[in-house]
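Predict the holo structure. Ligand: pyridoxal-5'-phosphate.
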Amino acid sequence: MPHATVVLVVEPESKPRFVAIARALIEEIRRGRLRPGDRIPSTRELAAQQGAHRNTIVAAYRDLAAQGWITTSQGKGTFVTGQLDPVPTGGRARPLRKPKLGDPHRMGFSTPPTVLSAMPPRAVPGGRKPIFLDSGLPDPRLLPSALIARAYRRVLRNTGLLGDGDAQGWLGLREAIAGTLAAQRAIPCTADDVLVTRGSQQAIDLVARAVVRPGDAVVVEALGYRPGWDALRLAGAELIPIPVDGDGIDTAALARVLERRSVRLVYVTPHHQFPTLATLSASRRVALLASCRKHRVAILEDDYDHEFHYGTHPVAPLRSLDVDGIVLYVGTLSKVLAPGLRTGWVVAPRPLLATMTRIRSAADRQGDRPLEAALAGLFDDDTIGRHIRRMRRIHLERRTAAVAALTKHLSGSVRFTIPQGGMALWLDVDPALDPDAWAAAAAARGVAVAPGSRFTLDGTARPNLRLGYCSHDPGELELGIARLAAARSMARTRM
Ligand SMILES: Cc1ncc(COP(=O)(O)O)c(C=O)c1O
């Protein structure tokens, strides 16, 4: 039986080649130009026709056979599988195209949620050695990656860990987190009070889904954390901004709002207010708890980088003062280790924690069990504790270097107070300078800093820059801040 005529349109850029050839054959079958029962060329013939190595065609046929498109009959040849239902379209062969996304309205899909905040454009630094001072993230070069890899390898040998697990998280890690929170944050809790999440982002999302109903009012800091706001908005929250100053969120303004209208949740970063780094004063902590207790409002406390507090003792979290069970406490390893490890947690009253665990299970089944088990080991043998103590020293050195470089290059143009902790500095910018234009000009010179507009609800401008100093060494900080100074002239609004 002669084989069918096959004219293949093989995507030249597709790699590996056997995949492209297999795809081209599938397209021929789908279009009905190769029909069920047709004999297709031998691997030798097709190799000659395509100018390919025979092994390439053998690999393509093996792939097609495994997918059920073709069958080989010993001594007879290779055939298009009998029961296929090709889609005859006629016409000339056309190259494979990526499927087009249909018009969401016409297809009945919803459009992307418009509630998500419009992100002000992020200026990405160009040049030879880009320096990123626009985040408050740690230096990935200092991560104890060999120790993490060893711990991960060790737990992977236990294949039992690769099965289904507890949606609340690996018990050993929950125990380690609860122990750390009890010892270092005076939060009375056990493993049963902790839900391990993929970073604090998932923790905030779960709180939002469990607590917020569409249309609920949620109070946020007027300068704040956009990813957290987005999670709240996705749950249907209407965000009400309350001003922040050098003592954190203005609790008198909050009390006035709570007197006036019904609010479901208050989202705050009391320890190092994001992005201003202000620590919520003791009197405001008490006032915040009292107002929320009086009006039966839950508090979402984001304690994202409490590990990096220098000089004085860290300030106790709201959760440690909460006798009514209204504080939902969120933490993360993103600042301690790396954001890519996606590990965080939420501590909440047990019935609510059970609801969040149930929601997590519906959306995500469970976390990364081997990673959670590896991290538990790293807590237990104090690898994480040692790393935090080392990084605290290094961050402090870097902060000193950043302050020295700012004083050398930019005194007169920016003012700042040195915060009690955190991983960034919040700069007040000379009113004659436009921070957005300055950040854009700095990016063109190879350094990224975050203008104040990044942290407002509607992206309106603010006379500030935020400068994260932890992810670069002192030499890089000096270079980055010198570049920032060199870009200053482009930011002048008046002479
Ligand atoms: C205010 C705040 N919360 C939480 C986080 C950490 O987020 P995640 O744990 O999702 O990486 C950050 C990190 O940038 C932050 O700035």
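Residues 383-410 form the longest helix (28 residues). The pocket of pyridoxal-5'-phosphate is lined by residues 136, 199-201, 225, 269, 274, 302, 304, 332, 334, 339, 344 (CB under 6 Å).
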